[in-house]
Structure prediction request, 583 residues.
Amino acid sequence: MRTPAFILVLTAVAAALYFTFNFVGNDYLFFAGYVVLQYIVLATAWNILGGYCGYVNFGSAGFFAIGVYTTIFFYTVGQKIDTLMPDWLIAPMKLIFPLPLPVLIVLAGLVAGIVGLGMGYLTLRLRGVFFAIATLALTVVMETFIVNWSFVGGSRGAYVIPPNEVPIFGNYIHFLFALMLLLVVIALTSARLIERSWLGVGFATIRDDELAAEASGVPTLRLKLVATVVSGALMGMAGAPFPYYIGYVEPASAFNLSYAVNSIAMPMIGGTTSWVGPLVGALLLGTLQQVATVTISSAVNLLIVGLLLIFFVIIAPRGIVGLYQDWFGKSRKGAKP
Amino acid sequence: MANSTNSITVDGIDAAYGAVRVLENVSLRVGSGETVVLLGTNGNGKSTLMKCIMGWVRPTKGKVIAEIDGEKHDLAGLTTEQIVDLGIALVPEGRRLFPRQTVEENLLLGASRPKARAHIKTNLDFCFETFPRLAERKGQLAGSMSGGEQQMLALARALMLNPRILLVDEPSVGLSPLLVARTIDAIGQLKTHFNLTVLMAEQNFTQALRIADRGYVIVHGKIEFEGNSADELNNNDLIRQFYLGM
Prediction:
């Protein structure tokens, strides 16, 4: 399928989902669905570096939090224009602020992408488990930084009050849900584009044999930096609407371990070699977690992840996509366009 | 008009992995258009020397100078990417193809170097012409081919770089005697066609000497013997002692 057609189909599915939820009429569906969609974006983003290049990033929570705190930063700036800006700037700034959420998402993507570039330069010369540890360490550094930065709330946390109503969508959660659907479409389209381009082939050589790739002149460091930037930017974009969703953010919730763990577990369970894997994994695991939250307790979520991960590592190391290919004999050669 | 001298001079290098000393005061020279073989059994430092040239292992002492089209480059400060970009290609030990990519993709990946991209079509045609087997199997995954075919692909992939200097690390590993002979022949032919400068590390000395102009014997990280012709190497006591136990 060509990319425009793919986007069209994806958008149609997204719209159908939105209208079905709207038809059912229970807003809880939107709240729960938002979280699942957010995980689809996170898992897809993680997979660009972790699945395609084979570099396991334990810092997903950090990038997510960068998105969260970019929103909080600009929100706070908007709140404090009168005290922050010189007099002549106040009037024009009041026209711009508060920034609309879509703009915040783009800004969050930029900031997270830049941080991704920096992190890449610092850590991408490390391989395997050392890289994973470095990304985890960087997340801790970022969290410490945020905890001590009182402008964005520090360890007290920050409140973001979403407007009650928005034009067209009505209820604000409908708007957030629609935005997240859009992000899912963007994330999946980018992942699929990468997978089928030379970028994807280059990434795969890094995963398969990085030294051989270097000897063949594949610009490995540059490719890895591209992967970190794209992956980081998407994670940041997924985090940007979060304060509006949750209303109150503190560092421990923005840097929550569950983001790091889920964004690794979901692609692993779904399958890491194609864009379908993270999607399937996130849908399955995310929905399961939402059901468990309602029926049992949200504390059981990480347990579910752990059990499923063990199950899949043993029974189906190539994930659900791998299982499907084994059963239906669709190898990569046959599936190639 | 730049001349076309392409040589490698290794000047007194030491190399170590942590505390383990692997190379000690190794010097050798591969002159323009020569095929030089580096003979030695396992664990004597052949691959480490190759890695020193490619920039994966940094020598603790000494210098590696490459002369490309008459211009001298000190490889010490360069990254692997830059070294490859100069026109030095390595066929790594154990082939190290990209097993989940097709034959054609492997070849095209070999041409990642900017200067090679201009000649991608001619080089691809030449590779398919020289190794018809690869043309037949261009859509097949590289990992699913036989050892001999994979070695041909590894060679062809290195050629896609449009190199001036070709390093070949143990092309005979894991191949049957017949295939070893064929691989060595192929290297000889390619060398002539592209007018390459070749440094080949090998333990199969009878095969290697068929195409070598000169050679060095490396023992425990030191160059123990320098043979100025294939004959000299053939009749050398050290080699007899090491390979034939006489």
Notes: The CA atoms of residues 87 and 163 of chain B lie 4 Å apart. The longest strand of chain B covers residues 7-17. The mean pLDDT of chain B is 88. The beta strands of chain B are 7-17, 20-30, 35-39, 61-68, 71-74, 88-91, 165-169, 197-202, 214-219, 222-227.
